[in-house]
Design brief:
It contains five helices and no strands. It is extended, with a radius of gyration of 22 Å.
């Protein structure tokens, strides 16, 4: 009886630590992304000559940051998804985030002209470019690190 109680308490503590870690990561991601986006919006407003930013726009910007942080936390800080590899996590993130991002861009007035092909080409190009850069980083840098790690491990195992 005492053993099962201790096991339950240990599982509860492990679960609570996981939730705390998840919430802390979510908080940090929201704070970082929202503060940088607000700085970028203020800079864009200054350069374009507009003097006001509406509260409605800031709320939509916060929702975008919240959804992005939630998607990031789920896709990159989840042990189950993380086991499948970086590209799987990145693909899940893109699938979860991009449709909501497009919707919020429309609501924020960023894509005012739905039929403007150049805006869509630029948007798709940025997304594809970021995905390709991530793919190259994963394939070139991470595989080299894995090869070095494997070599060092083999050297350590063969030293006897």
């Amino acid at each position: 009886m005492q053993l099962s109680l201790n096991l339950c308490l240990e599982l509860r503590d492990k679960c609570m630590n996981g939730i705390r870690s998840l919430l802390a990561g979510l908080r940090d991601a929201i704070a970082y992304s929202f503060s940088w986006l607000v700085i970028c919006v203020i800079a864009m407003q200054l350069f374009s000559g507009k003097e006001t930013i509406t509260v409605d726009f800031l709320i939509k910007l916060f929702l975008l940051c919240f959804w992005g942080a939630l998607c990031f936390t789920i896709c990159f800080r989840n042990k189950g998804i993380e086991k499948r590899g970086f590209l799987f996590s990145l693909s899940c993130f893109y699938i979860m985030f991009i449709p909501v991002e497009i919707l919020l861009f429309y609501m924020m007035g960023i894509f005012q002209k739905a039929g403007n092909i150049w805006i869509w080409i630029a948007f798709a190009g940025i997304i594809a470019g970021m995905y390709i850069i991530s793919l190259l980083i994963d394939r070139m840098i991470m595989q080299k690190k894995a090869a070095v790690y494997t070599k060092k491990l083999a050297e350590y195992n063969n030293r006897e």
